[in-house]
Amino acid sequence: MDDLLRKEADRPKYEAGIVEYEQKYQDVLSAFPADLNQEILIMFMQGIKDNNDFDIKSLSLGEKEEFYTLGTNGATTTLNGGDATAEAEATTEAPTTEAVAEGEATAEGELSADTDASSGDSLVCYRASFPLTYGGSYNSLKDVVAYIDTYSDRMTVDSLSISRTDDDEYTGDMSVFCYSVEGESRPERSIDLNQVEIGVDNIFGGNVGNGGSSSASLNKYDDKDGAALETTYDFYTMVNAASSDVSAKVVGQNGSGKDATVISNSDNTISTIKYEIYETDGKNYCKYTLDDQKSYEAEITSAEDVKILIQSSEKKNDEDQVKVKVTIDNKTALPVYVKVSGDDAVSPRVSVAKNGLVKVYQ
């Protein structure tokens, strides 16, 4: 009886713990898409083709395979072809792995059962590989790796080989894995391929150094590597040390009387910032989101282009961990120009991934 009374007295603590770890579980789950199909991979490869001087010489789309099952209510979980812990460490980023491990250690599998099994829905983890042979410049290779790292779907580079040719071209092989967590409670996404030119010649063709990149014609601000964007921008992101006098990450719209457009945080962490440029009812809008928590939508008044300034700063010391992963997703015909200024040359704070008609000066 005394034991039950003590547990009853601690009920608020237990309930708060349930809420906390349920949220951690959902945060991990949200990092994985709910489906994995060739349409998704086509969109992924289209992003590489549109935004990088990168030639994909050959590509194989592997069949998806089940490798893990969630919601087993504490039962032994098997992993095809190896140890579950080792595979998780090999295919997930450290923050995700820590969150999963912490949830399992605390809830001992009950968190998955409460969230998914209660509705009779087992969540199944899938993966698929697509090895490719590539060619392009060294900078374009770095951009593609950054694109994979910051892509909205969970993807990893399993292996990468690189060699340099006599004409300063880099070629090699890359093996990329993509992942999904699927179940009845996670409906498949609706994918619009109307703007994608489907066909091997259109998607994967092109010469090395050209690659059919649409950004090649975006030269309006090429003078002094986009320096004009530092004074004529429409939207901005500021990145500073958490110990500075201003917030570590600040996103907003340029202009007087725009205080209400500003979103920010001062966490000494890596944050994600998404710029979504799209058209609705004949008008263009820009929606920017910080860490999937705060967002603001603004109408774009320019009929010519959209200009974004990312003003960064040098790292202060080893304890300064502030970084941002920026994604620019442009679904309009307006060109988007992005200038990254003041970033740390040794340990950059800013990485940028782009989709659509976007050019980055960095």
* Total number of strands: 17
- What CATH architecture of the largest domain do you see? 2-Layer Sandwich
The helical percent reads 10-25%
Strand content: 25-35%
Multimeric status of the protein: single chain
CATH superfamily of the largest domain: Ribosomal protein S6/Translation elongation factor EF1B
Radius of gyration: 23 Å
Low-confidence region ranges:
73-120, 194-216
- Sheet having the most strands: 6 strands, antiparallel
Task: Say what the CATH topology of the largest domain is.
Answer: Alpha-Beta Plaits
Shape: globular
Provide the fold topology.
Elements: H1 2-9, H2 11-30, H3 38-51, E1 54-59, E2 65-69, H4 84-91, H5 94-107, H6 110-115, E3 124-136, H7 138-149, E4 155-160, E5 163-164, E6 170-182, H8 200-204, E7 235-239, E8 249-253, E9 263-265, E10 270-280, E11 283-290, E12 294-299, E13 306-311, E14 323-330, E15 336-341, E16 350-355, E17 358-361
Parallel strand pairs: 7-13, 10-14, 13-15, 14-16, 15-17
Antiparallel strand pairs: 1-3, 2-3, 3-6, 4-6, 5-6, 7-8, 8-9, 10-11, 11-12
Helix pairs in contact: 2-5
